[in-house]
Amino acid sequence: MNRSNPPLRRLPLASLILALLAGPSAAADEAASVLPATAVSTHAADALTRIGNGVAGPTATVRFYTNCDDDGLGSLRQAVNASASGDSVRASPTLSCSTITLQSPLIFAQADLDIRGLGAERTRITAASGVEDGLIRHLGSGRLNLQFLTLTGGQKYRSDRQAQGGCVYGANEVAINSSRITGCTAKGTGSQQGVGGGVFSAGLTSLRLSEVSGNLATSTGGNYASGGGLYAVGGVDMDRSVIAANVADSTSNSWGGGFTTAGAVTIVNSAIVNNRARTSGGAHIHPPASSASAITNTTVSGNSALRVGGLTCGGPTVIASSTITANTSTDGMSGGRIIGGGLDLGSGSHAITSTIISGNLAGSADIAGSINLSASSGAVLAGSRDHISGSTLALPSGTLTTAAQMLPLALNGASRPTHALRATDPDVDAGSAPAGQTYDQRGFPFLRTVGSQADIGAFELDPDRLFSDGFDASIPTLPEAL
């Protein structure tokens, strides 16, 4: 088989969305203010320019922490407190310890701040036993950058207001790069909600080469919980990252096991797997009606909920070269409307291209009889070269509707899990490549187009390539107790 990958021209995301969507098709939660107006400075464009994507500019000061003490000379806390907006706080290259145990939350209000470790496996920030007011709280008006760190063990318990962000609270933007957020809890007690088990941000949350896993948002007093992994008021921008095995749980209602956002999302080369909530096990995406979301080269699998097992996407949505499978909707109904086990779209215009939405379980039906894709009244779907089995929405001409033949979720030679295709799968050489995508979801060296044309879904089959996981890591899964 001659398998080649011609160069692809990269188009701006905005151009792709405008080309695919003919027109615009919700509610947004509000974040409580935690500072008086005088405590937060106005967000300055030059500060964001200096800090950019986490690289300190020429006018920024770099401050090093040299030990793992909670406080005092050479500590992380001391370096943060001494920093100005736009500065970068970094682990010393000679740092010999690996775990910083905070005896109280690290709270700061610089507009922009960059905090770095030596790597997610080398620098770990956690909370001491009994600390119940979170781990890191950024109260500034700009962006908090967290890089090369593991944050774990943060607990945010509130009985007087909404519990927000077990490990990270951001009053505006939060950017997470090459880091892991795991084992954190946001718990509302009494009549309070719990939101953002791992991360809460009042602005945009971005993830690059990062993992948000094993976090919990819960309400124990009968109110709602939302965003088991993260809750982002301003949207989610996710690249080469994994959101896995997070839970939003409540005796009343919960949604967004993986994440919840009231903004639009851009997700590429990522995986949302094994999360759980009452509604929208994988993610609950409800941007303003005119804001388009885009999901490309992404796997959504193993998520579960009473209602939508995989994703709920309100607002116009563009999905390309992705795989949505093995998600479970226990009920399969909501307000008398049939709900898909994999994806539920809002009213308006949507585009799905070269994507698999099949093998999801909805309600009492078996896999073969389940609805995989559903939509609110007024939804219109465009697209081509898809594989969608069972839909309440009219599908584009030529859509494959046969049963899926994919292999179980595995790392397949990469750090972000995928479902490999079988050689007999009708998705092989039946899809199309998104503009600008050289590789499939797994990244280099797994080409996006191998053979006569790209495969449908997030995984590209290459019979000539023998791959092994090659990683000590495993795919995070929910504990049996949950």
Would you spell out the secondary-structure blueprint of this structure?
Blueprint: H1 13-20, H2 45-51, E1 62-65, H3 76-81, E2 88-91, E3 99-102, E4 106-108, E5 113-116, E6 124-127, E7 136-138, E8 143-147, E9 150-152, E10 155-158, E11 163-164, E12 168-170, E13 173-177, E14 180-182, E15 185-188, E16 194-195, E17 199-201, E18 205-208, E19 211-213, E20 216-219, E21 225-226, E22 230-232, E23 236-239, E24 242-244, E25 247-250, E26 254-255, E27 259-261, E28 265-268, E29 271-273, E30 283-285, E31 293-296, E32 299-301, E33 304-305, E34 311-313, E35 317-320, E36 323-325, E37 328-329, E38 333-334, E39 337-338, E40 343-345, E41 348-353, E42 356-357, E43 361-362, E44 373-375, E45 379-384, E46 387-388, E47 409-410, E48 418-419
Parallel strand pairs: 1-2, 2-5, 3-6, 4-7, 5-8, 6-9, 7-12, 8-13, 9-14, 10-15, 11-16, 12-17, 13-18, 14-19, 15-20, 16-21, 17-22, 18-23, 19-24, 20-25, 21-26, 22-27, 23-28, 24-29, 27-30, 28-31, 29-32, 30-34, 31-35, 32-36, 33-37, 34-40, 35-41, 36-42, 37-43, 40-44, 41-45, 42-46
Antiparallel strand pairs: 38-39, 47-48
